[in-house]
Design brief:
alpha+beta, 60s Ribosomal Protein L30, Chain: A, 6-stranded mixed β-sheet, 2 helices, about 30% helix, RutC-like_sf, YjgF/YER057c/UK114, YoaB-like
Amino acid sequence: MSSIQRYHVGPRMSEIVVHNNTVYMAGQIAETLEKDTRGQTEEALAAVDRMLAEVGSDKTKILSVTIYLPDVVNEYDAMNAAWSEWVAPGHTPARTTVEARLADPRYRVELTVIAAL
């Protein structure tokens, strides 16, 4: 039987869950909500880097990412500019971008990640 490890456990969710050498990450957002889409994407990606490092993984081991944007038509290019600078060449994960209303109207982007250890 394999164990389940939870990190940054709160009353409603854990930021990271690790099971069977797979990392499941809750949605990551920027802390500086005054930034534009590109700036918020850069911050959210930096959070992904920190979280993966905490459990012994990194962006080259990302299997899948779902990116949520409140306005795909107007924010996709700015998000993609930050993404393209961040993603590891040759290690691009499966990726989906979805238009969705986010929990706070100031959020420009949110990312969920599944990665290998």
